[in-house]
Every structure is written in C-alpha cells, then in structure tokens.
Amino acid sequence: MKKLEEFLEWGGVKKDVTFLILSGIALLASLLNIELFHVDLAWVAIILCGIPIILEAIIGLVTKFDIKADVLVSLALIASVIIGEIFAAGEVAFIMQLGGLLEDLTVAKARAGIEKLVHLTPRTARRISDEKETIIPAEQVQIGDTLRVLPGETIPVDGTILSGQTSINQAVMTGESLPVNKGAGDSVSSGTVNQFGSFDMKATKVGDDSSIQRMIKLVQSVDADKAKIVGIADRWATWIVVIALSAAALTWLISGQIIRAVTILVVFCPCALVLATPTAIMAAIGNATKHGFLVREGDALERLAEVSKITFDKTGTLTYGAPKVVAVKSFCPAWTEQSLFRLTASAEQRSEHPLGKAIVASYKQQYRDGLQMPDQFHMIPGQGISAKVDAYEVAAGNLELLSAKQIDLPDSMREEAASYLENGSTITYVAVSNKAIGFIALSDTLRQDASDTITHIRETNVTPVLLTGDNEKAAGYMAKQLGIQEVFAGCLPEDKLKHIEDFQNNGNHVCMIGDGINDAPVLMRADIGVAMGAMGSDAAIEAADVVLMDDKPSNIAVAIKIARHTMRIVWENIIFALAVKFGVLILAALGIANMWLAVFADVGVAIIAILNAMRAMRI
Fold first, then answer.
1. Kind of pairing between the strands at 392-397 and 384-389
2. Rg of the Cα atoms in the chain
3. Residue 37: pLDDT band with limits 50, 70, 90
4. Where in the sequence numbering do the catalytic residues fall?
5. DSSP 8-class letter at 485
6. Band of the pLDDT at 144, cuts 50, 70, 90?
C-alpha cells in the first residue's frame, strides 16, 4: 500500500519521461505487428499519454468551459479508437505529450536562470556588538547594525563598507564576470559574494527592501502568458476547434467516409499554436536575464519589439546621478589647484550639502589623504559654508555667499566660470581671508556606456529622446555630447507625460527609461517602461515592464533585438503551422491524406515549432 502511495505521489519530469519511453516502445512494437494477448500494444500509449489529455480536456470543459487544444486532441483520439485506428490514436497521444514535455523543459531551463536568485538569499549574518561577534538569522538584521562578512560568504543585506578592502562577485545582480574591488565608503548589495578580504559594513536596507529580495519579487512576477500574441493563439485555437468540428462533420456527410472526418480532426489540432508561442516567449525571458535585464511579462516583449522612440530621463540613466568635481581653477599664484582643492575639501568635511560631500569625495578619490578637519565650521543655508582650516578663514559657496561677505569676483574668474556654467556645471567659489582665489566646478557626469547606449539604439532604427528636468544648458550640453537630436528640458512629471502622449498620438510606440520616484507615472504611461534595477526607486521598478538589473542602459538595445527576434520566431511558427494544416486539410477532404500525414500536420508541426522556439534562448 505504501509503495502504491509513493507511486501516486511521484510526478514531474521523471514520470513523464518514463511514460514516454514505455509508450514509444509500445508504438514500435505495434508498428512491427507485435501483440500481447492479442492486444495492440499501441493501447499502452493511449493509456499512459492519451488518458491524461482526455481528463485535462474534460476538467477544462466542466470547470471553465475552456475549448482549447486538448478538446480537439481528445476528440481525435476517441474518434480514432472508435474507427479502429489504434496506432494513429497512440501516436497522436505520444507526440502530443512529447511536445508538452519539450515545452516544460524549455520553460524550466528559461526560469532556472532567474529563479536561482531565490536560492541565493543569505540565511545568517555576523553582527558585531560591543566588539563581540554573533551569528544571527539574516531576517533579524536591523538598519544601522554593524556586520562582518568573511571571504566566501554571501552578503546578507545592503549596506556600506565601514572598514576593510575586498573584492565582490556581483554577477548574480549585474552579470559582471569580473569581481569589483570595494573599500570603505563603497556600497554592497545583498546576494553578492565576498571573494577575498573580510570587511565590516553598516546595514542600510534590510528584509524586503534589500536588493536580493527586490529581485526575487520581480522574478516571481515574471509571466509569459500575458503576451497579446499568446492570447491571439489561444483565441485562434478556440475558433480552429469550431471550424475543425464543422469541417469534419461536413466531410463525413458529403463523402460518407468517417476516416476522412477523423483525419481532419487530427490535422486541425492546434498544438503548434498553443504550445510553441508561450515557449518562445518564456525562452526569451530566460535569455534576457543572461544579458542583465528582467522582463516581467511576455506582453512587454511584444511591445518592446514595436518601439520606435526611446525617451530617457537624464539623471541616473545616462548620467551617474551624483555631482563630481570636473575642474579646479586657481586665480591666485599662492595657491596651486591641488592646494586649493585640498583646502576646500578640508573645509567641507563637516558639510551635509550634496555639493560639499561631492567635493570631499572627489578629493579623496583623486588624492586619498591630506585633508585636515576644520577648527571652526558654519553652514550658511542657500549660500555655502565658512570654516577655519589651519589658520585660514575659508568661504566656499555661490555668488550670494560672496555678495553677502562683500567679496569681489575678478572678471577673469567670472568669465572662466561662465564657460562651465554654459555646460551645465555648478560652481563653488572659494575665498580665503575675504579674497576670491578660485572656484571648483561640479557636474553630473555621463556614464561610461552612455555614448554606446545611444549608438546601439540608433542601430535598431529607434530614435533616442531626452526628457529631463534639468535646465536647457545642462540638457543641451549632455545631448550634444551624446548626439541626441530631440531634447526637452525643464520637464516636470506632467510635462514628460504630455510629451509621451504627443509621441503616441503621432503613431509612435514609446519606451521610457527612468530611475526616480517622479518617473513612475511616465513609466506606466509609456508603451513600455524600463527601470534601473540596482539604483532605481521602488516606485519606478514597480511601474516598469523591464528592469535593468545591472543599471546599464546600453542593454536596452540588446532587449529590443531579443524582442524582435522572438516575435519573428513566434510568427514563423504560426505561419508555418497554419500553412501545413490548411494544405493537409485540403488533401484530407479529398481523401488523399492518410492518418500518418494528419499526425505530422498536428503534433509533428508542433514539435518543429517548439524546437524553433528554443532558438529564443540563444539569441
């Protein structure tokens, strides 16, 4: 009894493969006219492969009134048995189940790449408290906790490195093949692997907010069945069932030969339409993860293939989204550019302003050390800071700060600063002892792959468009560097929405790429929304159809190519299947086509279509 229960519970691929092997052997024996107890062995295939199909069709009809492929296959099986075509019935059942297994294996292989994220969720963390190390469950980590990560361990939560030098394998999140060196101040993501050095970190995002959990949620939302093309195939399948029954009945009435009617039923089984389309979509979704982006539903691939314009939000997509020092200019012989930079960075060390922090970070990145903590520090809202560094009275800020302190700005300095302002930079003027000595120019810098992004997009015959809230000078300068012709600056979220709608009203299919909370409405309004996965806001990611897990917008061109190739494969399958079916249908109605040809027109074509769909995994 126990063994029987274990057998009934046993399922999955192993059971399907076993049944198919037994059915295949039985069909071969039937073909060789080998019988067992005077019974055609093709019955083994009918029982093992055909009965599950018939049961599924009955359940679908009774519970959902679902008239799909299984209904017609079941009718063809039953009719073949009634007229004594036992081998043909077994063959239909065998090849139908073989096609289903091929589809399941393709989908499973496609999902394997994205679902492995679930298994990479760290279970424990090393919390440091009062210089004591305690291993705790990862879900108990709180924001602000100090954690230690040893070589070979998976990082449990998102955070910032406090001390230590290391190298992180970020392949699971970004697809990067080489480890990335990290040190104090650098951010690390949960699910990535510490390869070499140990380090201490401060937890900044925990639980469901961590990078790995966000990616898992996206994986779980992936669905191949939402593609419109899949819906079309299903609707066609329903109509084909109706047409097949009508054609079979009419042929039987006119010819008086039931074999012709059954042959037509077999020909019309819409297996290729129902099986191959979602297989191609799912294979493409799995392939997409290997290229650094996650497609959340099959419908997104279909819409992505039709894109004619891609609109970018500049900050955080084409640029890094953080100011960096691009120039240091001294107008006083006593101060070199390096000494001016060091003095300003020292004065800004206690500043909470993003520009002040950017000056300090840029100095440390370039020179590492040499900074001195200011003896006095005063923040002046809306203007800048004043501080005392090594006996020097330092003022750093905008023109309002200089005006308030009655500090004159030399014409040469004003003219030089104007050239940087024209390029969209922000200027921090520096004065020592109430005398202007120079300035530091800061700007949001282009991503390393920004130029390649625009180039690759143009190669797909898609027009890039810049929609940004930045001023015209900053937007124009960036657009000129990238070669973007269509630029819309000073855009509020409602302005971006209007531009998207205008494009759509002119017949364009629009893709929007963004990363901020303010991008969420635009991502939803566009035909297809793409969010920056690693650094994008939760709102933007939830609103998007495609998520760039490695924050490389250049991958959108790859996504378009995969989408277009996939849709080409889908239409190849549909056209091929319909052409063969209608050709054999005519032959069957004339009594020329036999049951063998009918089986090929149905399940044979379905298997060819599924094999063709598998190509979407290798685009």
1. antiparallel
2. 33
3. confident
4. 313
5. -
6. very high
Against a cut of 0.70, is the pTM above it? no
Q: 146 burial class (0-12, 13-18, 19+ CB within 10 angstroms)?
A: middle
Lay out the sheet containing 376-380: strands in order across: 319-330, 435-446, 426-432, 392-397, 384-389, 376-380
Query: Looking at residues 558-574, what average pLDDT do you find?
Result: 87
Residue among 221, 170, 187 at smallest CA distance from 550: 170
Predicted confidence at residue 68, as pLDDT, reads: 61
Strand partners, 323: 444
Neighbours of 179 (CB within 10 A): 17
Q: Where are the beta strands (DSSP E) in 390-461?
A: 392-397, 426-432, 435-446
Query: Tokens representing 337?
Result: 């550019």
Rounded Cα–Cα distance for residues 41 and 90 (Å): 9
CA-CA distance, 227 to 225, in Å (whole number)?
6
Measuring CA to CA, how many Å separate 479 from each of 348, 503, 512? Answer: 32, 19, 16
- Going by the DSSP 8-state scheme, the letter that residue 447 receives in this structure is P
Q: How many CB atoms lie within 10 A of CB 583?
A: 14
Distances in Å between the alpha carbon of 178 and those of 171, 172, 193, 195, 554?
8, 12, 12, 11, 19
Say whether 326 sits in a helix, a strand or coil: strand
- Are 294 and 534 in contact by the 8 Å Cβ rule? The answer is no
8-state DSSP, 185: T
* Cα–Cα distance for residue pair 194/166, rounded to 1 Å: 7
Mean pLDDT of the chain: 79
pLDDT of residue 519: 67
CA distance 605 to 485: 47
Are 63 and 18 in contact, with CB atoms under 8 Å apart?
A: no
Taking each helix axis from N to C end, the angle separating 258-268 and 555-589, rounded to the nearest 10 degrees, works out to 180
Alpha-carbon span 70 to 92, nearest angstrom: 12
pLDDT band, very low/low/confident/very high, at 337 (cuts 50, 70, 90): very high
CA distances from 579 to 92, 225, 344, 601, 611 (A): 20, 24, 75, 10, 18
